[in-house]
Structures are given as structure tokens and as C-alpha cells.
Design goal:
Strand order of the largest sheet: 13-12-11-10-6-9-8-7-14
Shape: globular
CATH superfamily of the largest domain: NAD(P)-binding Rossmann-like Domain
Bound molecules: nicotinamide-adenine-dinucleotide
CATH topology of the largest domain: Rossmann fold
Low-confidence stretches: 347-356
Distance between the termini: 29 Å
Number of strands: 14
Radius of gyration: 22 Å
């Protein structure tokens, strides 16, 4: 594909709380050349000018798109504007890295995948946790001992920050759904979710989401914008251990508690389907995790995919894998927790021409 020897020309659209990190990273990364930024809020543009005085700013999105030096755009605007902005960038033959969630509708995301495919451009979603060294360590444990993995759960609570375009489930559970998909190499078959509007803000700020997998495993996600206890945890419970990824524990991001319960399967069952249980108790281990910035690794991966033509680890199809769950979750919330099947969509992954 493209064999760039030159740094890739990048623009950043949306320089709010999160977008400013992209500005910093694309300025630092040797494989990128930050051409300029655009934000509809002049105060954010001013802030970029203060913090990164050498960075150019575009007067409009049109000016950004019209600049031939801009080969790729990192889109860090609110979720509701991802579809229109990413679509325009892809149509103008720019590679796109768009923040999560990819769009707010599955059909819009499918559309983006098609435009990217048609124009031969990279479409990648900022599912940052897939690039997180601690999540990767957790995945290693899951892959090595999947047969003894019982279930997963995640908790992502805090006081805000409250968004005005999507609810807390779309904002926060997006992370955990993408983490679970990545850990299990499997997407859920069904969802049951309830939400509450405790802050009276017109959208759900608390959610309890259960995910069911074909393997029989369960996943559970609790999100809240209304909980004064800030948590950012993903837990994997196995027959002989419990592994905790705690994003707020800088020192020991992953801990393995070697304690669990599982049937003794080499002895005959006591009665019909009844096994003796073995309880195991051992050490607490905190494996070494390389101190790396996940967003930096994500940005490097984007540049690599542009150069190599490889599909991103979190491309359009993986973004859709998350959105189908979010849409099923919305339907379940509307049905007060009823179990809703997840639309199984293997977009682009299984071309019909080669399907057996
Ligand atoms: N991956 C992560 O860990 C992570 C963390 C935080 C936020 N995010 C995602 O990043 C995105 C932005 O979140 P945020 O917290 O920075 O929000 P924010 O409101 O602080 O920033 C959004 C910015 O986009 C600008 N904007 C809106 N529409 C625009 C347009 N059409 N063109 C140019 N600029 C536009 C706004 O003026 C604002 O400055 C969201 O999709 C969010 O889900 C991801």
C-alpha cells in the first residue's frame, strides 16, 4: 500500500477536554506532522494557541478539508457530530481516527465503513482501552485460561462529567463493551439493561447492563454519573482466581487474587450434576505493566495502518460491534430491562462472495 517515508499530515477536529491530548501527541510523534486544528469554539482554539504556539489553526472545517497537506483527521467532537464530520473527511479522501462511540446509530456507522472502503481510506475508532497495556495483560490471562473464566464485570462510576448529547450508558459503557469484546474475542448475543434518570437531566445517568454470550458467560457493567465514589474497574472471575484491572491504581493496575472455587472434575459427581467443590487460596500478584500512554499507542497504530494498509485493531467493524450492543441496550432500557437480542452484524468481516 502506501509506503510513506514522510510523516503523515494530520489535522485535529475538536479540541475539547479530550481532543487537546491528540494535539499534544500528534505534535510529538515522529511519524506525524500536525498541520493544524479546528474547533467551533473560539476559546478552545485560543487554548491550543497558548499551549502549542507553533500549531496552526484553521478558520473552518472546510479550510481544514481543503488543505492538501492534511492526509488524516483525528475527530474528537461530541458523539452526535461524529457521523457527519467523519463522513465528510472520508469523502474528501482523508484517513479518519474518530473518538468513541463511532456514531450514535449502527446504520450511520455502516455507511462510514462503506465510504472508507470505497475510497481506500483507514477508518479507526478511539477505543483507547484496547491499546492499554493493563487491558492487554488482562487479555493475556483470559486467553491463557479461558475455559476457567466464569464471568466479567465492570464498574465506571463518578460524579459526571455529564454529557449533553448521549446518556451515561452510551458515554461510559462503550468502553467496557469494547474491553469485553477484546478480552473474549466474542460479542454478546443478548443484553438486558435498566437505566435511571436520578439527576432529572432528561437522560439516563445510571445504568446496570447485563450481557449474555453464546459461550454461556455473563458480563455486567455498572455506570453512573451520580456516584461520588469514582471507580474505573474491570474484573474477570475465574475458577481459581480473580483478576482486577483498576485504572485508578497507578501502582498496581492489574492484580491477580489467586483465590477461587471450582468443581473437582476428576472425581465422579455426588449426584445428578453435583460436584465436590475445591476452594483455592493463594497469593496476590501484581504483574509488571509497562508504563505507556494508551492514547499514544493508539495514535501510533493509526499511523502504522495508514502506512501499511493494514486493518486497524479497532476499525469500523469493531466500532459497529460496540454500537449493535448499545442499540440493543437502548431497546432493553425502553422495555425496562427485557432481554433483547443483539443484531449480529459481521460487516466486511465475512464477504458474502467467499462465504461457504
Ligand atoms: N477514549 C477516551 O478515553 C475518551 C475520553 C474522553 C472523551 N472521549 C470522547 O471524545 C469526544 C469528545 O469528548 P470531550 O470530553 O473532549 O468533549 P468536549 O465537549 O470537551 O469537546 C468537544 C469539542 O468539540 C468541539 N466541536 C463540536 N462540534 C464540532 C465540529 N463540528 N467541528 C469542530 N469542533 C467541534 C466543541 O467545541 C468542543 O470543544 C467524545 O466522543 C468522547 O466520547 C473519549
Amino acid at each position: 500500500m502506501n509506503h510513506h517515508t514522510q510523516p503523515i499530515g494530520i489535522a485535529v477536529a475538536g479540541c475539547g477536554y479530550w481532543g487537546i491530548n491528540y494535539v499534544r501527541l500528534f505534535q510529538e510523534l515522529p511519524g506525524a506532522s500536525l498541520i493544524g486544528v479546528f474547533d467551533i469554539r473560539p476559546e478552545r482554539v485560543d487554548l491550543v494557541r497558548q499551549r502549542f504556539p507553533t500549531t496552526a489553526t484553521f478558520p473552518s472545517m472546510e479550510a481544514l478539508l481543503a488543505d492538501p497537506r492534511v492526509e488524516a483527521v483525528a475527530i474528537c467532537t461530541e458523539a452526535m457530530s461524529h457521523y457527519a464530520t467523519a463522513g465528510e473527511c472520508l469523502r474528501r479522501a482523508k484517513h479518519v481516527l474518530v473518538e468513541k462511540p463511532l456514531t450514535t446509530k449502527v446504520s450511520d456507522a455502516e455507511d462510514l465503513c462503506q465510504i472508507a472502503e470505497r475510497n481506500g481510506r483507514v477508518l479507526m475508532v478511539g477505543h483507547t482501552f484496547v491499546y492499554n497495556a493493563a487491558v492487554r495483560k488482562l487479555r493475556q490471562y483470559v486467553v491463557e485460561d479461558k475455559e476457567h473464566l466464569y464471568y466479567l464485570y465492570a464498574q465506571r462510576t463518578n460524579l459526571g462529567p455529564i454529557r449533553r448529547d448521549v446518556n451515561a450508558l452510551w458515554d461510559l459503557a462503550t468502553h467496557d463493551i469494547s474491553i469485553f469484546n477484546y478480552l473474549l474475542d466474542e460479542t454478546p448475543e443478548w443484553v438486558s439493561a435498566v437505566g435511571a434518570r436520578v439527576l432529572g437531566n432528561g437522560r439516563e445517568d445510571v445504568g446496570f447492563i447485563t450481557l449474555g454470550y453464546a459461550s454461556g458467560r455473563l458480563g455486567h457493567i455498572h455506570v453512573s454519573w451520580a456516584d461520588p465514589n469514582k471507580t474505573r474497574q474491570v474484573v474477570a472471575v475465574f475458577g481459581d482466581k480473580r483478576i482486577v484491572f483498576d485504572d485508578l491504581n497507578g501502582l498496581e493496575q492489574v492484580r491477580v487474587f489467586e483465590k477461587g472455587i471450582r468443581p473437582i472434575t476428576n472425581e465422579p459427581p455426588l449426584g445428578f450434576g453435583e460436584y465436590k467443590m475445591q476452594i483455592r487460596d493463594g497469593d496476590i500478584i501484581s504483574p509488571k505493566i509497562e508504563p505507556r500512554e494508551p492514547l499514544k499507542d493508539q495514535c501510533c497504530h493509526f499511523l502504522e495502518c495508514i502506512n501499511s494498509g493494514d486493518k486497524p485493531l479497532t476499525g469500523g467493524p469493531e466500532g459497529i460491534d460496540v454500537l449493535v450492543v448499545l442499540e440493543a441496550m437502548d431497546r432493553s432500557v425502553a422495555l425496562r430491562g427485557a432481554r433483547v437480542e443483539v443484531r449480529q452484524l459481521k460487516f466486511l468481516a465475512t464477504p458474502t462472495a467467499t462465504a461457504a
